[in-house]
Protein backbone atom coordinates (compact mmCIF):
# COMPACT_ATOMS: atom_id res chain seq x y z
CA UNK A 1 0.00 0.00 0.00
CA UNK A 2 2.82 2.40 0.89
CA UNK A 3 4.67 1.54 -2.33
CA UNK A 4 1.53 2.37 -4.30
CA UNK A 5 1.33 5.70 -2.46
CA UNK A 6 4.89 6.51 -3.54
CA UNK A 7 3.94 5.82 -7.16
CA UNK A 8 0.85 8.00 -6.90
CA UNK A 9 2.86 10.88 -5.43
CA UNK A 10 5.39 10.61 -8.22
CA UNK A 11 2.61 10.72 -10.81
CA UNK A 12 0.88 13.77 -9.37
CA UNK A 13 1.58 17.41 -10.10
CA UNK A 14 4.05 19.59 -8.25
CA UNK A 15 3.52 22.04 -5.42
CA UNK A 16 1.63 25.26 -6.03
CA UNK A 17 0.36 28.10 -3.82
CA UNK A 18 -2.72 27.13 -1.85
CA UNK A 19 -5.95 29.10 -1.55
CA UNK A 20 -5.02 29.88 2.09
CA UNK A 21 -2.00 31.91 0.92
CA UNK A 22 0.73 33.03 3.37
CA UNK A 23 3.14 30.18 2.74
CA UNK A 24 0.62 27.35 2.38
CA UNK A 25 1.30 25.02 -0.55
CA UNK A 26 -0.78 22.26 -2.08
CA UNK A 27 -0.42 19.40 -4.53
CA UNK A 28 -2.83 16.89 -5.99
CA UNK A 29 -2.24 13.15 -5.77
CA UNK A 30 -3.86 11.02 -8.43
CA UNK A 31 -5.30 7.87 -6.86
CA UNK A 32 -6.45 4.70 -8.64
CA UNK A 33 -9.91 4.94 -10.18
CA UNK A 34 -12.76 3.70 -8.01
CA UNK A 35 -16.40 2.73 -8.68
CA UNK A 36 -17.24 6.30 -9.71
CA UNK A 37 -14.22 6.94 -11.95
CA UNK A 38 -11.13 9.11 -11.43
CA UNK A 39 -10.29 10.21 -7.90
CA UNK A 40 -7.59 12.33 -6.32
CA UNK A 41 -6.55 13.54 -2.90
CA UNK A 42 -4.82 16.80 -2.00
CA UNK A 43 -1.90 17.43 0.34
CA UNK A 44 -1.58 20.87 1.92
CA UNK A 45 1.54 21.86 3.83
CA UNK A 46 3.01 24.72 5.84
CA UNK A 47 6.65 24.22 6.79
CA UNK A 48 8.02 25.53 10.07
CA UNK A 49 10.97 27.92 10.04
CA UNK A 50 12.42 25.98 13.00
CA UNK A 51 11.54 22.54 11.64
CA UNK A 52 13.41 19.61 13.18
CA UNK A 53 11.82 16.60 11.55
CA UNK A 54 8.58 16.32 13.52
CA UNK A 55 5.23 17.09 11.93
CA UNK A 56 1.47 16.74 12.22
CA UNK A 57 -0.89 15.33 9.60
CA UNK A 58 -4.47 16.59 9.92
CA UNK A 59 -7.53 14.77 8.54
CA UNK A 60 -10.81 16.71 8.32
CA UNK A 61 -14.33 15.48 9.03
CA UNK A 62 -17.53 14.97 7.04
CA UNK A 63 -18.87 17.97 5.10
CA UNK A 64 -15.51 19.63 5.64
CA UNK A 65 -12.05 20.33 4.25
CA UNK A 66 -8.86 21.82 5.63
CA UNK A 67 -9.23 25.57 6.19
CA UNK A 68 -8.01 26.00 9.79
CA UNK A 69 -4.96 28.12 8.98
CA UNK A 70 -4.70 29.43 12.55
CA UNK A 71 -4.31 25.89 13.85
CA UNK A 72 -1.54 25.20 11.34
CA UNK A 73 0.34 28.30 12.48
CA UNK A 74 0.04 27.21 16.11
CA UNK A 75 1.95 24.08 15.14
CA UNK A 76 4.56 25.70 12.91
CA UNK A 77 5.22 28.39 15.52
CA UNK A 78 6.24 25.58 17.87
CA UNK A 79 8.54 23.95 15.30
CA UNK A 80 6.16 21.26 14.05
CA UNK A 81 5.76 21.02 10.28
CA UNK A 82 2.08 20.99 9.39
CA UNK A 83 0.38 18.90 6.73
CA UNK A 84 -3.28 18.29 5.96
CA UNK A 85 -5.08 16.10 3.48
CA UNK A 86 -8.30 16.90 1.67
CA UNK A 87 -9.67 13.40 1.17
CA UNK A 88 -11.04 12.19 -2.14
CA UNK A 89 -14.35 13.83 -3.12
CA UNK A 90 -13.87 16.60 -0.54
CA UNK A 91 -12.81 20.21 -0.86
CA UNK A 92 -9.78 20.76 -3.08
CA UNK A 93 -9.93 17.15 -4.24
CA UNK A 94 -13.38 17.34 -5.83
CA UNK A 95 -13.51 16.57 -9.54
CA UNK A 96 -16.29 17.67 -11.93
CA UNK A 97 -19.29 15.37 -11.76
CA UNK A 98 -18.29 13.68 -8.52
CA UNK A 99 -20.81 13.12 -5.76
CA UNK A 100 -19.50 15.01 -2.74
CA UNK A 101 -18.37 12.88 0.22
CA UNK A 102 -19.26 9.56 -1.47
CA UNK A 103 -17.67 6.51 0.18
CA UNK A 104 -18.49 2.81 0.47
CA UNK A 105 -15.71 1.74 2.82
CA UNK A 106 -13.79 4.05 5.14
CA UNK A 107 -10.60 2.22 4.21
CA UNK A 108 -10.82 3.92 0.81
CA UNK A 109 -9.25 6.92 2.55
CA UNK A 110 -6.19 4.96 3.65
CA UNK A 111 -4.47 5.55 0.30
CA UNK A 112 -5.00 9.32 0.72
CA UNK A 113 -3.38 9.21 4.16
CA UNK A 114 -0.59 6.93 2.91
CA UNK A 115 0.26 9.45 0.20
CA UNK A 116 0.49 12.28 2.71
CA UNK A 117 2.64 10.18 5.08
CA UNK A 118 5.04 9.35 2.24
CA UNK A 119 5.22 13.02 1.24
CA UNK A 120 6.10 13.96 4.81
CA UNK A 121 8.83 11.35 4.93
CA UNK A 122 10.18 12.57 1.59
CA UNK A 123 10.27 16.08 3.07
CA UNK A 124 12.38 14.86 5.99
CA UNK A 125 9.63 14.52 8.60
CA UNK A 126 10.69 11.42 10.52
CA UNK A 127 8.17 11.54 13.40
CA UNK A 128 4.51 12.05 12.59
CA UNK A 129 1.55 13.01 14.77
CA UNK A 130 -1.75 12.01 13.21
CA UNK A 131 -4.69 14.29 14.02
CA UNK A 132 -8.33 13.76 13.09
CA UNK A 133 -11.50 15.78 13.60
CA UNK A 134 -14.99 14.21 13.81
CA UNK A 135 -15.31 11.68 10.96
CA UNK A 136 -11.61 12.28 10.38
CA UNK A 137 -11.13 11.11 13.97
CA UNK A 138 -12.96 7.90 13.09
CA UNK A 139 -10.88 7.49 9.92
CA UNK A 140 -7.54 8.08 11.67
CA UNK A 141 -8.47 5.70 14.50
CA UNK A 142 -9.39 3.01 11.98
CA UNK A 143 -6.15 3.73 10.10
CA UNK A 144 -4.03 3.35 13.23
CA UNK A 145 -5.77 0.09 14.13
CA UNK A 146 -4.58 -1.31 10.79
CA UNK A 147 -1.15 0.38 10.58
CA UNK A 148 0.75 -0.25 13.82
CA UNK A 149 4.15 -0.19 12.08
CA UNK A 150 4.18 3.30 10.55
CA UNK A 151 6.33 6.20 11.88
CA UNK A 152 3.34 7.71 13.69
CA UNK A 153 4.18 8.64 17.25
CA UNK A 154 0.83 9.89 18.56
CA UNK A 155 -2.85 10.21 17.66
CA UNK A 156 -4.70 13.44 18.48
CA UNK A 157 -8.50 13.27 18.27
CA UNK A 158 -10.66 16.39 18.09
CA UNK A 159 -14.28 15.35 18.82
CA UNK A 160 -13.97 12.00 17.02
CA UNK A 161 -17.08 10.40 15.52
CA UNK A 162 -16.91 7.10 17.43
CA UNK A 163 -20.65 6.44 17.63
CA UNK A 164 -23.92 7.60 16.09
CA UNK A 165 -25.67 10.51 17.73
CA UNK A 166 -29.12 9.07 17.13
CA UNK A 167 -32.00 7.65 19.16
CA UNK A 168 -31.76 4.08 20.44
CA UNK A 169 -34.40 3.01 17.90
CA UNK A 170 -32.38 4.45 15.04
CA UNK A 171 -29.10 3.00 16.26
CA UNK A 172 -30.39 -0.48 17.09
CA UNK A 173 -32.96 -0.97 14.34
CA UNK A 174 -32.95 1.54 11.49
CA UNK A 175 -29.17 1.84 10.91
CA UNK A 176 -28.64 -1.97 10.80
CA UNK A 177 -31.52 -2.24 8.31
CA UNK A 178 -30.07 0.51 6.11
CA UNK A 179 -26.64 -1.13 6.30
CA UNK A 180 -28.02 -4.50 5.24
CA UNK A 181 -29.76 -2.93 2.23
CA UNK A 182 -26.97 -0.52 1.29
CA UNK A 183 -25.84 -2.39 -1.85
CA UNK A 184 -29.38 -2.45 -3.21
CA UNK A 185 -30.25 1.17 -2.49
CA UNK A 186 -27.17 3.19 -3.40
CA UNK A 187 -29.14 5.85 -5.25
CA UNK A 188 -31.38 6.63 -2.29
CA UNK A 189 -30.66 9.92 -0.51
CA UNK A 190 -31.28 10.06 3.25
CA UNK A 191 -31.67 13.55 4.77
CA UNK A 192 -29.74 14.19 7.98
CA UNK A 193 -31.95 17.02 9.20
CA UNK A 194 -30.79 19.96 11.26
CA UNK A 195 -30.49 23.60 10.33
CA UNK A 196 -27.61 25.97 9.80
CA UNK A 197 -27.09 26.95 13.45
CA UNK A 198 -23.62 25.37 13.69
CA UNK A 199 -22.47 27.04 10.47
CA UNK A 200 -23.76 30.42 11.68
CA UNK A 201 -21.81 29.99 14.91
CA UNK A 202 -18.61 29.56 12.86
CA UNK A 203 -18.92 31.90 9.88
CA UNK A 204 -17.83 35.52 10.06
CA UNK A 205 -20.82 36.30 7.85
CA UNK A 206 -23.01 34.87 10.61
CA UNK A 207 -22.12 35.05 14.29
CA UNK A 208 -18.61 33.56 14.25
CA UNK A 209 -15.06 34.59 13.35
CA UNK A 210 -14.09 32.23 10.53
CA UNK A 211 -14.14 32.31 6.74
CA UNK A 212 -14.39 29.17 4.62
CA UNK A 213 -15.75 28.04 1.26
CA UNK A 214 -19.41 27.11 1.74
CA UNK A 215 -19.41 25.20 -1.56
CA UNK A 216 -16.92 22.79 0.06
CA UNK A 217 -18.26 22.92 3.64
CA UNK A 218 -22.01 23.26 3.24
CA UNK A 219 -24.00 25.29 5.74
CA UNK A 220 -26.51 22.48 6.17
CA UNK A 221 -25.41 18.89 6.53
CA UNK A 222 -26.18 17.19 3.20
CA UNK A 223 -28.19 14.03 2.61
CA UNK A 224 -26.20 10.79 2.53
CA UNK A 225 -26.75 7.45 0.83
CA UNK A 226 -27.03 4.02 2.47
CA UNK A 227 -23.45 3.15 1.46
CA UNK A 228 -22.10 6.05 3.53
CA UNK A 229 -24.12 4.89 6.54
CA UNK A 230 -22.89 1.32 6.06
CA UNK A 231 -19.26 2.49 5.81
CA UNK A 232 -19.51 4.53 9.01
CA UNK A 233 -21.28 1.73 10.87
CA UNK A 234 -18.66 -0.84 9.82
CA UNK A 235 -15.89 1.48 11.01
CA UNK A 236 -17.71 1.91 14.33
CA UNK A 237 -17.70 -1.87 14.73
CA UNK A 238 -13.90 -1.84 14.58
CA UNK A 239 -13.13 1.15 16.79
CA UNK A 240 -15.68 0.19 19.44
CA UNK A 241 -14.33 -3.34 19.82
CA UNK A 242 -10.73 -3.40 21.01
CA UNK A 243 -8.92 -1.45 18.23
CA UNK A 244 -5.67 -1.65 20.25
CA UNK A 245 -4.09 1.66 19.32
CA UNK A 246 -0.50 1.29 20.53
CA UNK A 247 0.61 4.93 20.33
CA UNK A 248 -0.38 7.59 22.90
CA UNK A 249 -3.83 9.03 22.20
CA UNK A 250 -5.04 12.51 23.14
CA UNK A 251 -8.85 12.41 23.24
CA UNK A 252 -10.42 15.88 23.23
CA UNK A 253 -14.11 16.79 23.36
CA UNK A 254 -16.48 19.49 24.63
CA UNK A 255 -18.03 19.30 28.08
CA UNK A 256 -21.57 19.32 26.71
CA UNK A 257 -23.60 18.48 23.62
CA UNK A 258 -26.35 20.68 22.26
CA UNK A 259 -29.76 19.26 23.17
CA UNK A 260 -33.18 19.76 21.65
CA UNK A 261 -34.76 22.85 23.12
CA UNK A 262 -31.47 24.54 24.03
CA UNK A 263 -31.27 28.23 23.07
CA UNK A 264 -29.46 29.18 19.86
CA UNK A 265 -26.77 30.88 21.95
CA UNK A 266 -25.60 27.41 23.02
CA UNK A 267 -24.29 26.77 19.51
CA UNK A 268 -21.36 28.95 20.60
CA UNK A 269 -20.32 26.80 23.56
CA UNK A 270 -21.37 23.18 22.96
CA UNK A 271 -20.84 20.30 20.55
CA UNK A 272 -23.75 20.75 18.17
CA UNK A 273 -22.98 17.57 16.18
CA UNK A 274 -22.01 14.61 18.37
CA UNK A 275 -22.78 13.17 21.82
CA UNK A 276 -19.78 13.93 24.03
CA UNK A 277 -20.69 11.07 26.38
CA UNK A 278 -20.31 8.62 23.49
CA UNK A 279 -16.99 10.19 22.52
CA UNK A 280 -15.72 9.79 26.07
CA UNK A 281 -17.02 6.24 26.53
CA UNK A 282 -15.57 4.78 23.35
CA UNK A 283 -12.53 7.03 23.26
CA UNK A 284 -11.25 5.79 26.62
CA UNK A 285 -11.21 2.26 25.19
CA UNK A 286 -9.02 2.97 22.16
CA UNK A 287 -5.78 1.87 23.80
CA UNK A 288 -3.79 1.56 26.99
CA UNK A 289 -2.42 5.12 26.81
CA UNK A 290 -5.36 7.49 26.34
CA UNK A 291 -5.40 10.98 27.83
CA UNK A 292 -8.88 12.49 27.91
CA UNK A 293 -9.43 16.25 27.89
CA UNK A 294 -12.85 17.79 28.46
CA UNK A 295 -12.96 21.30 27.01
CA UNK A 296 -15.42 23.55 28.81
CA UNK A 297 -17.31 25.68 26.29
CA UNK A 298 -15.79 23.87 23.30
CA UNK A 299 -17.47 23.65 19.91
CA UNK A 300 -17.64 20.45 17.86
CA UNK A 301 -14.47 21.56 16.09
CA UNK A 302 -12.59 22.54 19.21
CA UNK A 303 -9.97 24.65 17.43
CA UNK A 304 -12.79 26.93 16.18
CA UNK A 305 -14.05 27.64 19.70
CA UNK A 306 -13.95 31.06 21.35
CA UNK A 307 -10.43 32.55 21.67
CA UNK A 308 -10.07 31.88 25.40
CA UNK A 309 -11.29 28.29 24.95
CA UNK A 310 -8.97 27.39 22.12
CA UNK A 311 -6.09 29.20 23.80
CA UNK A 312 -6.39 26.93 26.83
CA UNK A 313 -6.84 23.95 24.53
CA UNK A 314 -3.60 24.71 22.67
CA UNK A 315 -1.71 25.16 25.94
CA UNK A 316 -2.76 21.71 27.08
CA UNK A 317 -2.35 20.02 23.71
CA UNK A 318 1.18 21.27 23.14
CA UNK A 319 2.20 20.44 26.70
CA UNK A 320 0.98 16.91 26.05
CA UNK A 321 2.77 16.74 22.70
CA UNK A 322 5.95 18.09 24.28
CA UNK A 323 5.94 15.10 26.61
CA UNK A 324 5.03 12.66 23.83
CA UNK A 325 6.72 13.77 20.62
CA UNK A 326 8.72 17.00 21.09
CA UNK A 327 10.47 18.80 18.22
CA UNK A 328 14.04 19.45 19.34
CA UNK A 329 14.60 23.15 19.87
CA UNK A 330 10.92 23.97 20.33
CA UNK A 331 10.43 27.04 22.49
CA UNK A 332 7.59 27.37 25.04
Describe the structure.
Strand 1 and strand 2 form a beta hairpin. Helix 1 crosses helix 3 and helix 5 crosses helix 7. The longest helix has 18 residues. The radius of gyration is 19 Å and the shape is globular. A 9-stranded mixed beta sheet has the order 1-2-3-5-4-6-7-8-9, sandwiched between helices. By secondary structure, the protein is α/β, with parallel strands linked by helices.
Radius of gyration: 19 Å
Task: Give the helix/strand class.
Answer: alpha/beta
Largest sheet, spatial ordering of strands: 1-2-3-5-4-6-7-8-9
Separation of termini? 38 Å
Low-confidence stretches: 2-11
**Which term fits the overall shape?**
globular
Largest sheet: 9 strands, mixed
Helix content: 25-40%
Kindly state the mean pLDDT as a whole number?
94
H-E order? HEEEEHEHEHEHHHEHEH
How much beta, percentage-wise? 15-25%
What is the total tally of β strands? 9
Note the total helix count: 9
Core attributes:
31% helix; nine-stranded mixed beta sheet; disordered N terminus; 332 residues; alpha/beta; 9 helices
Please render the helix and strand layout as text:
Layout: H1 2-11, E1 16-17, E2 25-34, E3 37-46, E4 54-59, H2 69-76, E5 81-86, H3 110-122, E6 127-133, H4 135-146, E7 152-158, H5 168-180, H6 197-202, H7 226-239, E8 249-254, H8 276-283, E9 290-295, H9 307-324
Parallel strand pairs: 4-5, 4-6, 6-7, 7-8, 8-9
Antiparallel strand pairs: 1-2, 2-3, 3-5
Helix pairs in contact: 1-3, 4-7, 5-7
